[in-house]
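Structure tokens please, single chain.
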Amino acid sequence: MGGTASPSSTTRYLYNHVDQNLPLTFQSSIIPDTRHHHNIHHDKVRVADLDRCDSFLDLWEGERCKMIEMSCEQHDEFSANSQFITHLIGRILWQQDLVPTPIDTKGFQTVLNLVENTCSDSFDLFFGLYYYNEHAGEHLKNIREALARVERQLAAREAYLAAMAEVSSGQRSALHEDVKTLMREAMLDLQQGGGSGAAADDETDE
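Here you go.
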């Protein structure tokens, strides 16, 4: 194993060195035998034996997990900005009843994957991300405000194009009237010029 602990040795270590009454919770996706580079966030709180704690963390590093130390408060802030937002957008899009089409783009396929990945989890998980994180409510408010801003931007552009169409129409009408005026003046000039020329020809013939 190249110095990396095997799943069986990891299990033995956990049972022999970790207090069985310690409330430790790990997601199933970070079981050592998956052999992936998972992120494990931890916060050293009320550590009585620092060497024992470090040995436990080193165990997971040996299983190719990336150990990230951060405070619980910072974790909640990051979680609301990533996990809650992801699940929120996924469930909003799920309400749209999106289905694959023959002209799907890569972006739309990503959207469908997001919906599938988030809505395959239970609503209890989504509710927990919201209810137990004080930052989630602020992000929900920001989503509402962002949607309202986008709607206002669309309405403003639509109003701008409508106004430009009206102005263009008005300009065309004004130009049309100017052209008709110029044509009438040109006809008058031709008529007046033609009459004078005929009179001059008559005088010459005499």
